[in-house]
Every structure is written in structure tokens, then in C-alpha cells.
Amino acid sequence: MENFNSNQATAVAVSSATSTRCGIDWLRAQALHKQELARFIEKNPRSQALALRAAEHMLFGVPLHWMSDWSTPFPLNISHASGAQVVDVDGHQYLDFCLGDTGAMFGHAPPPVARALAHQAVRGYTAMLASEDAVWVAEELARRFGLAVWQFALSASDANRFVLRWLRAATQRPKILVFNGCYHGTVDDVFVDLVDGVPRQRDSLLGQVTDLTANTVVVEFNDLAALEAALSNRDVACVLAEPVMTNIGMVLPQPGYWEAAQEILRRYGTLLVLDETHTISSGMGGYTREHGLQPDALVVGKPLAGGVACAVYGFSQELARRVEQAKRLAPPGHSGIGTTLTANMLSMTAMRANLAEVMSDAAYAQMFSLADYLAAGLRAVIGKLGLPWCVTQVGARTEFQFSQLAPGNGSAAALILDSELEQVIHLYLLNRGILITPFHNMMLVCPQTQRSDIDTFLAVFEDCLHQLKIRSPE
């Protein structure tokens, strides 16, 4: 992710002397970007006024610096959101294909969750005590995902962080393994990349004072030989992975990869943790259940409570026994795992309502149908214009990528990223009432998305690409 700053508005115009990129006429892209910046400024005076006020009292002028990652010259301020639509403070309505980058994957403000929150609002928010809703949720998670024992957190970042602590304690192994280009939230341990085949701490990680490469091993996704070599010393506690890489652009597992990878992990006594925070788009039990994977632990975050802060992590029965034993044998005191607001009553009631009434088979069926329609439409537009791009899909999650072939690992995915071109396309869409994620080109559909919404998106998308495409000689 790259933070927007005051210079970024002109970055596209000065960043490249290349006249063509990804089948796009770059000079036309520069000119279009300039026009779209002016259009956004003219259309959004209230957002601009709020941005000026926010600059006085917020870092980077936003509540969270990621909110400056959008393609806009100043932050877009939102008034309200419902279903598949968002309305900004200037009264503009948007078709939302970002959906809070999965946080609102089942639509904004799902009515069952809204009702549950209103009911709980007069019954208390937090007490640092167990509740019946938490018991119901744990039972439902076990049924859906096939892992027996569960714990809660307020974000997938924390859930991943807690799982790594538990598993290092349970195995007495110091190291973890991640895949090059991975993303698992703000867990420091995972900010390690391969640079010319050598593990190196990611330059973007701020304030880190220890050498992460001492205990984080990194290999390429889909490379079974590298995985086996990395685990052969038997000092790796666990592999932490998304079953499909999603945050560097989508990277799908090659056929048979996970079956073989799981066998390698078992051979060397290394545990498998699957982070399903994004790939929960695959179905009720995530990619894990849809594809018959058997992780030792699993993490799911932002969409589980309909957009209310929450996350969960689950263990197999055998691993839960080892984890509990590690805690019982440890000296008394704070484990470094959990926070006071973990499993608060408000989060639990929202999660129960969302699991019981929103995240249903019917909802997924509707989303899959819509995502198929979107992916087919994207391929048709890209093919019609003869662009060397591809489309990748994981359930309700779809992405177009600037390459003829889908990337097979993180290094290949990084090479085809073009944040400047993304900025031009994203801003063009946003100015015409369509939101997609502010980094790479990911789109989600929710149960409230209409086929007519997708048709509108595809028409605007095609118009944008028409303006950018290299013109054939007359």
C-alpha cells in the first residue's frame, strides 16, 4: 500500500518517459489523469473543506493513514452506506465494489446485524466476561470450518499475531514461514520479502528495531521444492498463508499445490495456519472447506460481524490441547495474547446475527452468480479492446491484472503492478460513481449488488479503457 500525499496528484504526469504501458497510451493517461483530478476537486467541495479541517488534527489528514491511499487529491468523506451503495458528504452516490476491502463483504449495514446492535445497545457493550453469544458463535464456527476450538480478537492482524505466539509456545520452535509478497495485517513478523533470492526486511515497515529475518523464513508461493528445503531443519513452527494470495494482486495455487504442501508440512512437523480474511469470499467455510484443506489453525477477520470490529482464530482439537498445555506450564502473568475488549458483547451479538442470518448459502450463491457475471464482463471488455490483461476470481472476489497470464508467485505479481495506472483508472471510475479498492484492482460483489450495477460498471470501465488504449495507425 502506498500513502497518498500532496505530491501524488502530479506523480502520474512526471513519473515515466515511457509512451506505452500495459497496452495503454501513457501520454493519454497523463492527460486523462489531470482532467479527472480537476473534476474531483470541482465535484467535492464539502469533502475538501473537511480535509482541510482534518489536516489540523489528524496525521496525514485522515483517521487512519491508509485512508489516504485512494486515488483522490484529498480524502473523500462518507456520509452513510447501505447495501451495495455509499453516499458521500457532497451527496454523490456510489456503486461500491470495494465494500471496505472485505469488511462489508455482505453489504453495508445488514439489517439483521443492525437490529442486533440496536438491541444490544441498551444491554451493555463490554464487561470482560463470557456471554451466550460467544458460545453460539464458537459452535457455529466449528460447524462451518471444521476446527474444534476457537478464540476471538478485534482484527485479523491481532488474530494472526496471537496464533503465532500460541504456536511458537506449543511447538517450542522459533521460526515461521511466509510467502513472498504476503500480507497478514500489521504482524511485524511477516514483513519479509525475497530480494534477488535473499530474505530482506520490507523497507516500508516503520520503527522496527529487530532483525525479522532471524526468525521469519520466506519462499515463493507455488514452489514446493523451496518449501521443503526451508522446513528441513525442523525449526519452523508454522506456515502462515492465505490459501490464495490476495494483497499483491491475486495469485492462485497451482493444481495439486496445497495437497503436496500439506504433506511436506506433516513430514517436518510444521503446522499450517490459513488466513481466510479475504478468501472467505470462497464460501461458507472459506477456501479451506471448499477445497478440502486441513489446516491446524485458521484465522478470519473483518467480514464476520458485518463490519463491526472482530476476528476469530480456531485450532484443531489436538493443537488446542498443546496450546492449553503450553499456557499451563508457563510462569504466571500476562501471556501477551488478547486485549480487554476482545469478545466484547457488541462484537459477539453482531457476529452471531451475521453468521445466523447474513452469511448464508443463499447469499453466497447470489454473490457467486454476480461475480461470474462481472468476471465474464471484464474479460469481454478486455478482449474487445485487445489489451494484454487477465481476470482472476476467487468466489465473490474478482480482479483484473496487467498481464496476459495470471502470476504464479509474489515476485511475478509484483512485476505487473502499476500503481500509477491504477490511480488513473480508479479515479475515472470514482468520478462516475463507482468505487473499487484503492490498491491494485480488486472488486467484490455483495448480495445487494444488482446485475444492472455491474452493467453500469462495465460500461464506465470500457469507456475509460477506450480513452487510454493505444490507437492503431489509420
From TrEMBL:
Recorded GO MF terms: pyridoxal phosphate binding; transaminase activity
Essential cofactor(s): pyridoxal 5'-phosphate
InterPro entries, alphabetized: Aminotrans_3, PyrdxlP-dep_Trfase, PyrdxlP-dep_Trfase_major, PyrdxlP-dep_Trfase_small
Swiss-Prot/TrEMBL keywords: Aminotransferase, Pyridoxal phosphate, Transferase
Pfam families: Aminotran_3 (PF00202)
Record-stated family: Belongs to the class-III pyridoxal-phosphate-dependent aminotransferase family.
Designated name of the protein: Aspartate aminotransferase family protein
